[in-house]
Amino acid sequence: MKDLRTMARYLRPCRWDFFVAILLLLVECGFEMAIPLLMTGIIDDGVALGDVPRIWKLGAAMALCAGLALIAGFIYARFAARAAYRFGGGLREAEYEKLQSFAFSNLDRFSSSSLVTRMTTDVTVMQNAINGGLRPMVRGPVMLLLGIGLSFAMNARLALVFVICTPVLGIILALIVRKVSPLYSRQQTAMDRLNSRIQEGLTGIRAIKAFVRGEYEEERFQEVSQELSDASRTTFQNAVLNLPFFQLVMYSAVVMILWFGGQLILAGEMQVGELTGFLSYVLQVMNSLMMISNVFLLLTRSLTSAHRIGQVLEEAPDLEEPEDPVREVPDGSIDFDCVSFQYQAGSEKYALRDVELHIRAGETVGILGGTGSAKSTLVQLIPRLYDATVGTVRVGGRDVREYDLKTLRDAVGIVLQKNVLFSGTIRDNLKWGDPEADDGTLWAACREACADEFLERMPRGLDTDLGQGGVNVSGGQKQRLCIARTLLKRPKVLIFDDSTSAVDTATEGKIRRALAQRRDVTKLIIAQRLTSVMDADQIVILEDGRVHAVGTHEQLLAGDPIYQEIYHSQMRGGDQDGQSL
Q1: Which of 59, 249, 271, 374 is the most core-located residue (most Cβ within 10 A)?
Q2: Are both 345 and 415 inside the same structural domain?
Q3: Contact 422, 483 (CB under 8 A)
Q4: 76 within domain boundaries
Q5: Winning range, highest mean pLDDT, from 144-153, 317-326, 400-409
Q6: Edge to edge, what strands does the sheet with 364-369 contain?
Q7: 99 within 8 A of 115, measured Cβ to Cβ
Q8: Helices (H), strands (E): how many in the chain?
């Protein structure tokens, strides 16, 4: 019920279309249910008595009812489609908007392929439940009640057949729904895995071709495709069982009605026209029951999709905005006060533990450490991509949780370890940093990031199309464009998370010298190459999530064994200092 209430909220913008569609359905049902009554009059009063004018009169009334029912049905289709597609569009927009509010920790709970399925396939299921399910959902019960009611009014003894058949059909439907309900969930999970395999295969297509693993990937795709096929086949094999069972019961009911009705006609207790009209209501009731059974199966699948969509919409963002947020970051000073962090609450191990670190505004700080030492985790706490589990992170002397998120993240520019460019031109991507930047500003940022070197060789320059994910540029070029994009934000804190790993040493040196001119910006540089941080005001060495040592190059080289080991491994034979040690 909670999931249905959630879905109902998104029906509100299209509620008038929805209500008008239901009203038109009721009108259509009313006209259709009048036709058997008119047909009874034609047979018993017109044909039996030879009253031709009455036949024409009632026949014209039947044609009018059929025409009006057709018009009502046609207009209904328009309103139902509009309600369904507005509802589906609203759900997709709500899910996408919700995703933008998620913290990284929220996104860690959903796979990207599952989120794609929830915004496409699951929303389509809900959309079809309105577009294709509203008609039987309303028409079925209305026609059933009217059909049974008019049948009892016409001949109560003969209508007792429905009293016997209806509970039998209800039991059959309940058993089928109980069997099929978990199968729909399994089917959607299989769809998630298929989307995941497609996404991974397309993203890594170059690696697949380079390692000649095409056949292997085809086999893996066939496995998940077969899993989805098996899940779908099993689901629908069980779902369609309602048709033969319902037909068996209802045609048995027709045979019994014909048998007992014939006996009543022979006994003079019933007229032929009355039996004909009664059979018309029987067919209406049969069709209504079939529609209701299909609605139950449709709702069963819809409830599965509604639950999956509801999980996204009801997920509470882990990062909460303060009630009275601070909307200005005074400077780029950074303080970590006894900070510990774990990715999942209740985990035995902390990714960061007891971090005590103080960085003055305008300083350049290098961060070194082995793989898994939590270097990226440390810097992601600064713009609140994650919140510290224990302790306080301060920027500009204030707890980062006191800031308006947009204000904080505008003041902290971060070039992530995994560089991301979007479909569109280079200009479009650079303007993520500053939407109002003119060409002069864009080229200035590109020169600082040494991106002008290859942009000037491109025929269209800033208007060069990057393709999806920046496939038209190399890894080093992509890194330089990402650096330029971040510089355009004019941040007070600038974080490079191993962002020059694909850039040659000479180009990296040019970028460092350009950044050194920004003396009012605090710079944090995570690097694997010692040359990237040797000139930093202080160097932080992380080991297993803890701060192992902090100092300048000279201090650490004189007294820290880990730094000495890194220096020896990278600098031996590289320069005079390296040779002398």
Answers
A1: 374
A2: yes
A3: no
A4: yes
A5: 400-409
A6: 412-415, 493-497, 522-526, 364-369, 538-543, 546-551
A7: yes
A8: 22, 10
Average pLDDT of span 179-193: 79
Secondary structure class of 67 (helix, strand, coil)? helix
Exposed / middle / buried, residue 581 (Cβ in 10 Å: 0-12, 13-18, 19+): exposed
Which amino acid would we find at residue 558? A
Q: In terms of domains, do 395 and 291 share one?
A: no
Which amino acid, 574? G
Q: Are residues 477 and 547 in the same domain?
A: yes
307 plus 339 within the same structural domain:
no
At 105, the amino acid letter reads S
Q: Which of 202, 111, 203 is nearest to 418 (CA)?
A: 203
Is the pLDDT reported for residue 270 higher than 60?
yes
pLDDT computed for residue 580 by the predictor: 35
| pTM attached to this predicted model | 0.68
The structure tokens 């985990």 sit at: 347
Do 246 and 375 lie in a common domain?
A: no
Q: What is the pLDDT of residue 365?
A: 93
More confident residue, 261 or 120: 120
| Both structure tokens of 42 | 């034609």
In a domain, 319, yes or no: no
pLDDT at site 46: 67
Measuring CA to CA, how many Å separate 519 from each of 449, 513, 523, 527, 551? 16, 11, 9, 20, 20
Cβ count near 229 (within 10 Å): 13
Is 490 found in the same domain as 390? Answer: yes
b/e per residue, 496-529, with b = 16+ CB within 10 A? bbbbbbbbeeebbebbbebbeebeebbbbbbbbe
User: Which one is predicted more confidently, 166 or 378?
Assistant: 378
d(Cα 27, Cα 21) in Å, to the nearest integer?
10
Match 């060069």 to its residue by tokens. 464
Question: Which of 340, 371, 370, 376 shows the shortest CA–CA distance to 357?
Answer: 340
Whether the per-residue pLDDT at 48 is higher than 70: the answer is no
How far is 367 from 532, CA to CA, in rounded Å? 10
Which 3-state string (H, E, C) describes 212-257?
CCHHHHHHHHHHHHHHHHHHHHHHHHHHCCHHHHHHHHHHHHHHHH
Is the model more confident about 416 or about 387?
A: 387
The pLDDT of 178-206, averaged and rounded, is 78
CATH of the domain at 119: 1.20.1560.10
Nearest to 368 by CA among 235, 562, 128, 204: 562
Q: What is the pLDDT of residue 572?
A: 63
pLDDT digits (tens, 9 = 90+) for 440-452: 899 999 888 888 8
Q: What is the DSSP letter of 42?
A: I
Share of the chain above pLDDT 90, in %: 12
Rounded CA separation 473/128 (Å): 42
What CATH code is carried by the domain that includes residue 566? 3.40.50.300
Given this model, what pLDDT does residue 425 score? 86
Percentage of residues in the chain having pLDDT higher than 70: 94
Residue-number span of the structural domain to which 76 is assigned: 2-183+239-313
Q: Tell me the backbone φ, ψ of residue 187, rounded to 5 degrees.
A: -65, -45
Query: What six digits make up the tokens of 315?
Result: 């997920």
Residue 162 lies in a domain: yes
Tell me the average pLDDT of the chain.
Answer: 82
CB 523 within 8 A of CB 540: no
